Amino acid sequence: MVYNNYVCHRYVVNRRYQRKLVWSIQEKAAFMDSIMRSYSVPLFLLAQNNLADNKVQYEIIDGMQRLNAVFAFIENEFPIKYEGKECYFDLDTLADTMVQKGKSLKQKMPKLPKEVCIKISNYQFPFSFVIADKKDIEEIFQRINSYGKKLSEQEIRQAGALGLFPDLIRKTSAYVRGDVSLTDLVPLEEMRKISLTNKGLNYGIDIDSLFWTENGIVTKANIRVSRDEELVAHIYSYILLGKDVAPSSHTLNILYDLDDDNENIAKRANDAIQKIGLDNLINNFRKVYDVLLTVIEKSNQNFKMLIFKDAKASGAVRTFQIIFLSLYDLIINEGRSLVKLDSLVKDLDGIGKRHLKDISGREWNAKYRTEKIKAIRGIIERDFDRKDSGEDVSTENWVSQLENLLSLSITEGGQYDFKQGFYSLDGKGKFETSLIDKILKTLTAEVNKGPNTHGYVIIGVSDKKEDALRIKELYGTEFRSFKGTRFFVSGVNGEIEKFHHSDAEAYLRKIKDAIKNNKGIDSYTSVVS
User: For strand 416-419 and strand 384-386, is the pairing parallel, antiparallel, or unpaired?
Assistant: First the structure.
């Protein structure tokens, strides 16, 4: 019955207050070993939502990691040890897995004995169901996670935290990690696709590939306890409240309504968010983040090596705040653009070793952080200029935006489509006008799924490696695979150069002209802009 509910999409997760899926294979296997041995396990707490047509949905309040472990084991994603062997669940044990066997599920070997699998499938899980409104569910979740098992400070802050500031941190952090979702309410089976995984799982987001871990800023262990969100929260506290705000746990506790707010810090932050706009703040963060991504890529080093020239250097979290906020001051507060990319890379190369070498051993307070931001800003400001005074070599958000669109397509495939380009790959170089009609139909279907829905067709991305290899053969264009997924990014520069378009604008004009000349254009006017 429990697995049947899962297959029928009855379990949902509210990302407004739920933790990430972060259990490792070892943690999942240990839990399933307890089930196999008939040990008692903690209570699963679910909120029952009665939907239309007599359908029922269960919102997981407590037990998401454990339920995910159960279903992942049943679907052969990992084994457990039995009599000295690593064995997998026998898919012939349950009717639901038998139906999917050979289709979406593949039996792995060796199998657990059938009687052991039956014992596991007959385990009586301790469920408690509540019927409560949204406010009560959030309060229950917050109490469980605040006074129950030991969580990190940031996990306690985010547990059940609602409001503008927690939403700002949650959405920005998900954007950087790549575990984004279109809506807050996500089916449990979809959550696994955007979970943070370690090696050994063929789904989710590899924790080693995250920006924070790849660049030596936040360790894997600290990612699992939300220290990346804590770092983002400190950055926003400075952006919203100014240079005098203390970069301390106490400040964050106030912003999350956990400590007394004698100085109206939380109110000031909320007022600032309302004035600037939550979406505008996230977009500003993205602009700076994308410039930083461009710099790191250009340097052929990760952040830590670029700044410190030493992979073992300490103080990366504090240093990232300083570098990021220095860039934010120039790009957002002063409206400047990066016009000397090579010079900026050179200026940042080893800057931590020269100017921030004592950062981890110093008292970390508002005055010191502000001093260092001013110092770094003074060094790099020559690489920026007013927007009307030179070429802007920043990426205008599309580096990280593309990554997030690719991530979203994993769970929301129906609203995203990808094409390698507009020219045929047979070597004849024919512009495929028929593709225009297909794209317009796709976009129309995507946006007609419901109110306020959006559709995307991304050009320059292949979902078959052979197409990416063919593009490389035809145009000499290298491609990148996206974090171990089926996506291969080649871009459209090969088509632009091969077929004598003067620049990207000329290429875009050809596409727009093909859209205007499409015979069925009148039926697609709602999606064409």
Answer: unpaired
